[in-house]
From TrEMBL:
One of its GO terms (molecular function) is DNA binding. GO terms for biological process: DNA integration; DNA recombination. The keyword Calcium does not apply. InterPro entries: CB, DNA_brk_join_enz, Integrase-like_cat_sf, Integrase_catalytic, Integrase_recombinase_N, Integrase_SAM-like_N, Tyrosine_recombinase_XerCD. This is XerC/D-like integrase. It comes from the Archaea. SUPFAM superfamilies: DNA breaking-rejoining enzymes. PROSITE patterns: CB, TYR_RECOMBINASE. Coiled coil: none annotated. The keyword Nucleotidyltransferase does not apply. Residues 116-331 form the Tyr recombinase domain. Keywords: DNA integration, DNA recombination, DNA-binding. Residues 8-93 form the Core-binding (CB) domain.
């Protein structure tokens, strides 16, 4: 430990960091940093780290392994966790609490093909994105599409196939209909037809979209698409680009977890958004929505029906809860002996 360092406990350091950033970060982003650093300070206390002067690269490695192995974090979530830790340690170095350069020992995970199959949008990140869209793009196409995808877990193809008439504002639901002749199909065809309930919040955004920003465009079949631009029905490719655009961390946090220059990053251009390592396509949003429903104790049968999934497929490809989470949720249904 350097003689130049001044003793500081993790919990106090966390509060100093949050106070320092309070005037430059959006409230949703600040809450996200608070949550991530809470995990870190709790780990420090559990491991009897009372003074950050003693914190080392080896401790970074131990914390990373704990979050990845024991807490079973998805790769995208791990990136966010460690990116915040890196910024926190950089701040701590500036106030002589840790060795200078310690933040450089925080290595962010890279996404492999194997990781991509488990990749999903977590609720914390979804809240940040939706808060940003609500503030800067309220009831515009990007906002309403993201709200519906996260809330319903719809496949992007099913969302693009919706018409204005498929939305019932009084009943607060969307009607999914398989229409093969005009080319707006459902993956499971007629078996995928269903009514999908909507919350008050999502209905408010849909109502404002239709009343204020919907261009009224009619497609080549004389139908009025729910998700539409001035040029026609929203395509799957355009829908995918929208999710790429707004899952870039720099958009909703003004920070880059990959230490890229926000002025020159190649992923700033719409045509290059896919080059950001953190972007998500619609499918991880669907997977995240499904897992979020399950974590909120929605029965699997209800989730399967709502998301048009067989229970075997749901278990095999979509349920990202850890074994410990499943055990905890099952336990509440056990009778008291």
């Amino acid at each position: 430990m350097s003689d130049d360092l001044e003793p500081l406990d993790p919990r106090t350091a966390k509060q100093m960091y949050l106070d320092d950033r309070r005037h430059e970060l959006a409230e949703a982003t600040l809450q996200s940093h608070d949550y991530r650093l809470k995990q870190f300070t709790q780990w420090c206390e559990a491991n009897e780290i009372e003074n950050l002067n003693d914190f080392s690269g080896r401790d970074i490695h131990r914390f990373r392994v704990k979050r990845r192995e024991e807490d079973n974090l998805a790769t995208a979530t791990m990136k966010g966790q460690l990116a915040t830790l890196r910024m926190f340690l950089r701040f701590c170095a500036s106030i002589d609490a840790v060795e200078a350069g310690l933040d450089g020992k925080v290595i962010l995970p890279t996404t492999t093909e194997e990781d991509a199959r488990d990749e999903m949008l977590d609720p914390e990140r979804a809240r940040q994105i939706l808060a940003h869209l609500k503030q800067y793009e309220y009831a515009k196409l990007e906002h309403v599409l993201f709200e519906v995808l996260w809330h319903t877990g719809l496949r992007i193809g099913a969302a693009c196939g919706l018409d204005v008439d498929d939305y019932d504002p009084d009943g607060q639901y969307l009607e999914l209909v398989h229409r093969p002749e005009p080319g707006t199909t459902l993956k499971n065809q007629a078996q995928g037809e269903r009514l999908v309930a909507l919350s008050d919040r999502v209905c408010d955004v849909l109502d404002d979209w239709l009343a204020v920003n919907h261009p009224g465009t009619v497609d080549e079949h004389g139908r009025e698409p729910l998700f539409v631009t001035r040029h026609g029905r929203l395509s799957r490719n355009r829908g995918r680009t929208i999710t790429y655009q707004y899952t870039r961390p720099c958009v909703y946090t003004d920070q880059c977890p990959h230490d890229r220059d926000l002025e020159t990053c190649e992923a700033l251009q719409t045509a290059q958004v896919h080059k950001c390592p953190s972007v998500l396509s619609p499918h991880p949003i669907r997977r995240g929505s499904i897992t979020h429903h399950l974590r909120e104790d929605t029965p699997k049968e209800i989730v399967g029906s709502r998301m048009d999934l067989g229970l075997d497929v749901l278990d095999r490809h979509y349920d990202q809860r850890s074994p410990e989470e499943k055990l905890k949720q099952r336990r509440q249904y056990l009778p008291d002996e």
